[in-house]
Amino acid sequence: MRLSRYFLPVLKETPAEAQIVSHRYMLRAGMIKQASAGIYSWLPLGFKVLRKIEDIIHEEQARAGHIPIQMPTIQSADLWRESGRYDAYGQEMLRITDRHDRDMLFTPTAEELVTDIFRSYVRSYKDLPLTLYQIQWKFRDEIRPRFGVMRGREFYMKDGYNFDLTKEDALHAYNRHLVSYLRTYERMGLQAIPMRADGGPIGGDYTHEFLVLADTGESEVFYDSEITDLKFGEREIDFDNVDQCQAVLEEFTSRYARTDETHDEAVWADVPADRQRTARGIEVGQIFYFGTKYSEALNAVVQDQTGAQVPVHMGSHGIGVSRLLGAIIEASHDDKGIIWPEGVTPFHCGIVNLKQGDDEADAACEALYATLTALGLEPLYDDRNERAGGKFATMDLIGLPWRITVGPRGLKNGVVELTSRRTGESEELPPEQAVARIA
Ligand code: ATP
Ligand code: MG
Ligand code: MG
Ligand code: MG
């Protein structure tokens, strides 16, 4: 992409309404624009990162054997009356009436709708296990939308639902989700720690929230410092292998890690004092096993091996897709701007032409642009007629991992400058070597 032809409305001033760094940088880097309280338009740069995050989620869901679908944002109240949640959900639900006076709503989550799909088609245990998921806009009329996309009213969420014959099978689905989420967040350059969460009215031990540690997080968290040494990494995993998935669950959840909702001083006291950590965290996902709560309410039954009709065991599993942009920036930035992890960066590198209009500099930039593009990489070429200082400030703000700076003086010696956004270190190299370093 050539910056002269892109739409990157960078702000010089720090927007007064933004209280936390990710919100400030997303506005300044022209990634989002507020449309109304807690509702945002996604401008090209923000939209590009959102898509990258989405792609990673789809790839990891496919790896785990989960199947993508798309359900509508606007739903009829009828199913929600059947489950009992229409009245129970409260003021976070945006309720709408259509021209025929029918009660509709904007989906805050989709257990009812997906269970209705399931019960309409699936009759036999032979069709299980089944996990369906979607990435779709949700609406929750949050009492205090704030921090930009972190707590929006309209937000983008991955929500998945498993259907299994037995509790045991459903717990394997739970573990599978835990494993796939660990992989998903790591690919985004994030450490998201599974923490024991509150089952709420559903109860039970089977729910974990994934938290990214950050001072601006809304949850207070308590954890054993050993947990931050755990990494899923590149290990091979067979998602159908019950023992393997169970072992990962045990590895990642056996140490103390809880939010304030489930924090228990008596258990906490058993963690060695020098390993006790209290911090703040951002909830970027949650997994849940809730048994037959919805299948019983909505009569989602299958025939088991004995011919009996039994309600299926279910769970639901969410990732805060749009919130992740904020979380990633909170976890990775400096005082000049964002520092994108390689996995989600909107462009792989920036090319800064120090002297636009200089034949040699222009030609060298064009050649770099063509070579990088041919390698399947996406460069962002700042070909505008602007001061070098302004170009550098923009590149630092939008946080691409690499910058190649091209100017007549370096070119006389056959070199360009390659700068790492994360370390700030620069090296003078022939253009081919700079490309090789990035690729
Ligand atoms: P929170 O505790 O932050 O209100 P939640 O527990 O109500 O979140 P879930 O129902 O678990 O949310 O939804 C799954 C994921 O969707 C959350 O883990 C979070 O990352 C994201 N999410 C929830 N509410 C919002 C919101 N208002 N804006 C952006 N992302 C959200
Ligand atoms: Mg909430
Ligand atoms: Mg929560
Ligand atoms: Mg939650």
TrEMBL record:
It catalyses: tRNA(Pro) + L-proline + ATP = L-prolyl-tRNA(Pro) + AMP + diphosphate. PROSITE patterns: AA_TRNA_LIGASE_II. CDD domains: ProRS_anticodon_short, ProRS_core_prok. GO terms for biological process: prolyl-tRNA aminoacylation. Residues 33-341 form the Aminoacyl-transfer RNA synthetases class-II family profile domain. Coiled coil: none annotated. It is found in: Cytoplasm. It is an enzyme of class 6 (ligase). SUPFAM superfamilies: Class II aaRS ABD-related, Class II aaRS and biotin synthetases. Its EC number is 6.1.1.15. One of its GO terms (cellular component) is cytosol. Keywords: Aminoacyl-tRNA synthetase, ATP-binding, Cytoplasm, Ligase, Nucleotide-binding, Protein biosynthesis. Pfam families: HGTP_anticodon, tRNA-synt_2b. HAMAP family: Pro_tRNA_synth_type2 (MF_01570). PANTHER family: MITOCHONDRIAL RIBOSOME PROTEIN L39/PROLYL-TRNA LIGASE FAMILY MEMBER (PTHR42753), PROLINE--TRNA LIGASE (PTHR42753:SF2). Catalyzes the attachment of proline to tRNA(Pro) in a two-step reaction: proline is first activated by ATP to form Pro-AMP and then transferred to the acceptor end of tRNA(Pro). Belongs to the class-II aminoacyl-tRNA synthetase family. ProS type 2 subfamily. Homodimer. This is Proline--tRNA ligase. It comes from Sagittula marina.
